[in-house]
Amino acid sequence: MDTSLLVLGIVIFLALAFDFINGFHDTANAIATSVSTRALTPRRAIIMAAIMNFLGAIMFTGVAKTIGGSVANPAKLTNGIDIVIATLIAAIIWNLLTWWFGIPSSSSHALIGALAGAVYVGAGADKLNWSGFIEIVEGLVFSPLIAFVIGYIVMMILKYIFAYRSPHTVNKGFRTMQVITAALQSFTHGTNDAQKAMGIITFALVSAGYQDHLEVPMWVKISAATAMALGTSIGGWKIIKTMGTKIFKIDPINGFAADLSGASVIFTATMLHLPVSTTHAITSAILGVGSAKRFSAVRWSLAGRIVITWVITIPISALLAGLIFKILF
Q1: Could you tell me which of 94, 30, 7 has the C-alpha nearest to residue 255?
Q2: Residue pair 177/195 in contact by the 8 Å Cβ criterion
Q3: Would you give the DSSP letter of residue 162?
Q4: Which helix (H) or strand (E) holds 124?
Q5: Residue ranges of the chain with pLDDT lower than 50?
Q6: Residues 193, 28: Cα–Cα separation, whole Å
Q7: Nearest to 258 by CA among 23, 25, 19, 37
Q8: Rounded to 5 degrees, what are φ and ψ at 23?
């Protein structure tokens, strides 16, 4: 077998492994509120999320093109495959570590940080597209702030509308509505997160000379969508526990508001071809909703630890990818 083809096969395997891990790491965020409020049983939530993730993943490619060409131009890298291997190994390690400790860290931050670090060490600072990298980071930074504000506003509106209704009746109705918003959130997760693996595979294909454009081949779409759906089917109970029970006590109306807010931010980013962190968007929406419900109800110490993880993910992933590149190549 041709050596370059074998190495490309390793890249594709690692990219799909990253997507699989992303499936049980990040999708847990999408269904955490609906599971914690018992709007859906864990089994039904996971099956629904897997299906909606798959559908979302195969319908859009804009984010994949951004990932594939904004951080660096793969056609100008002589060792692009090596860079991608270091990137994926670093991102996978960080995802598994944060999953093990039940911290809803960002797969997007891990991947972008690792890619930037691997390009910097493997090809030099001049090969890193700083403007494209900064634009992506800006989207990753501002999206959770926007999600927080939207979550707060949506919850305040719902509090005003249903202020004089029976809490039992309100929550019963919103428990049904949560099924819809959980499905919507899982769909939007697929439209954005699954494309990151697609973008990395396309980056590798261009680097290896197997194609000269950033269009995502259909087999890449289906492979990435399937890997994420399979990962989703495994579940991510550690993350679900953190998101659904430890930040604040979530009622169905809160879960509805958080899901709707998070999904709107993620899908808007997808339409703008911006890779955002679904973890950040969903967590920030939950924090915004919790603040609107009662500011003191939010466990801000836990929220603070989550935010610290967000802040350190990009630099740690970049350093880790650079170190792995040095060791392997």
Answers
A1: 30
A2: no
A3: T
A4: none
A5: 244
A6: 13
A7: 37
A8: -60, -45
